[in-house]
Write a structure and sequence with these properties.
Elements: H1 3-21, H2 28-39, H3 43-71, H4 73-93, H5 97-124, H6 132-161, H7 163-182, H8 194-202, H9 214-217, H10 221-242, H11 244-252, H12 258-283, H13 285-305, H14 309-338, H15 343-372, H16 376-395, H17 399-412
Amino acid sequence: MPNWLRKGWIVVFAGFCINLTFGCLYTWSIFSANLSNAQGWTASQASMPYTTAIGVFALVILLGGNLQDRFGPKIVTTFSGIFIGLGLIICGFFPTLHGIVLGFGVLTGSGIGLGYASVAPAALKWFEPNKKGMIVGIVLTGFGLAPLYVAPLTRHLISVYGIFTTFKLLGILFGVTVVLMAQCMNNPPEIESAAEKYRKMLARHVDTPGEYTWKAMVRTNEFYLLWVMYLFGAMTGLMLMGHMAKILQVQTGSSENVVLMVAAFSISNALGRPTAGFISDKLGRGRTMAVMYVVQGLTLLMLSKANTFGGVFLASIIITYSYGAMLTVFPSAIGDFYGTKNLGFNYALLFTAWGVAGIFGPQLAGYLLDVTGGYTTIFYICAAANIGAAFIGVIVKSPNQRKMRVIQRMASA
């Protein structure tokens, strides 16, 4: 194996490990229940740090993408680890609502945003464009697998040391891990990255992606088509994961198996990332997501009729698999459509669709549950949105392909 390729796989491994620490987001449901009991917080107060973290994460990823493109992934990811660790440690020393909103919501949320914007773009730049999906999938699988170890670890630490010492211990563990792994995060040499070699090799034979700045990207129609697709897919996945316990209760009459559902979510979510990445490298980004969205839309219709645990379980793992697939395919699509030079900030702009979906999807589901007493309406809405997104996936092409078609038509006129 060439030395430059070996370095590339080190970056992939480091990115995978860093994403495993981002699972600290998933610890909040455990902390929330304990804080409500220990501090007497209301449900609204207990959810405030998590809501803040999600919002800050979606915003800071824009800053992180820009900084990563300008200064490289090592510096940005190092600060990511510092913010994650410091934020959790602050929660342990300042056990008030404002202290925990500042620590977990603002600082830890910022750290995850900085890191998430840096690791996948750095890994992609070491490999040929026809491996984008596979590489992103491997890196992001860490985030999907995180609940499998973070949730039991957090519960154990709380039972032994208490809530606020657990915040400190997790802050040290996650902060040190990210800072150490960040030292492996490097872009390939400017002279001749793997992606550049591949482009040069194919330049005379196929259309290859240009390097778009964010200003050029947002002037293309394709960006907005991808944004809408991302919004619809993320809205479905986040709605389901945010309401799973209640969906089980409403659909089956019992939510006692919700722990099993969370474990299944983690596995299916994680599996969707590398497998969809590999498939999309062969089938194409748009076609892969078109298939996923059709399956997801039909599954939502099935879920609206499911009244047994088995039916809800099957539908849910299909949807979370598709959700994990989406989180891999869209970064790869941005690299295909707009190049990898500015991938960090370009993908961060697309990721704003996830932030909007994270607020809009669960809130709309809650409102419709209050109005109708069930989830059938939101399932139908999401099913229709997914079918629409599948249609977009069939027709969307990279800007370079569109330009080539125009040139060919002009040449044949």
